[in-house]
Amino acid sequence: MHDLQQSVSRRYRHCLSLWHWCQAAVGTTLAPRPAAAKHRQKAGRLLILGAMTVALREVFQQLYDHYGPQHWWPGESALEIMVGAVLTQNTNWKNVERAIENLREAGLLEFDALRSIRVEELAELIRPAGYYRQKARRLHNLLEMIHHRYGGSLGEMFATDPQLLRRRLLEVNGIGPETADSILLYAGNLPSFVVDAYTARVFKRHGWIEPEADYHTIQQFCQSSLPCDAALFNEFHALLVRVGKEHCGTRPKCEGCPLANLLPEGGPLGEDRQEAGEA
Q1: Domains identified in the chain and CATH numbers
Q2: pLDDT per residue over 176-196, tens digit each?
Q3: Positive or negative torsion for Cα 139, 143, 149, 154
Q4: Which of 91, 124, 188, 232 could form a disulfide with 158 if both were Cys (CB 3.0 to 4.6 A apart)?
């Protein structure tokens, strides 16, 4: 566990070093700024929609200044992170933690042991995560793919070309883009930006992407606007989840949000301003 913590710490230091290097490369400085600042950086890659212009680096900086590092994804091994990526579908993380603890107590957070258990038994162990029968089948499908293509070796799997591996993950019944990218990024430390409901909601409400933008469009948009670095993608996505949970749920809560100063003048797009905290 100590080695894991050291590894995570190194990754976040690397993330910050890379980010500040990028700012130096375009001649800008990212010293901490008050959350209410109205400054707009003009150098570097910009997000543009009509009159709304904002640099993705500014979004990252404001989130990081406000929240600090998120140390995500929690897990003691790549396998545990993969399991969590499947179990977190359509549920909250506390339920996933309960299910993973059941697997840990049963000695099943090891590839061969988890693959060999009957799907019906697995379903009962992960019941706290909800949709447990469906998720048990999905986990079984994923493990079978890894066994047949990579002999059960996660190291060999993650040494595969990331685009090829992503296609293979998406071929697994029950593994969609968000789950596949979570496995690549968090379990494999491969640069594949994860787009979830929070990410889409934050971007669309601020007017940084078109309202009809789909998963692929948002992912390509982020990956073309950022250095291709797994640690950076990891931290940025975790920060977007944090601000999404606290301020950008089904109904926006803009008061106190570290990105409130980046909203369009009329408030979040597609929302009733009163719901966003304006009387």
Answers
A1: 1-68+193-279 (1.10.1670.10), 78-187 (1.10.340.30)
A2: 999 999 999 999 999 999 999
A3: positive
A4: 188
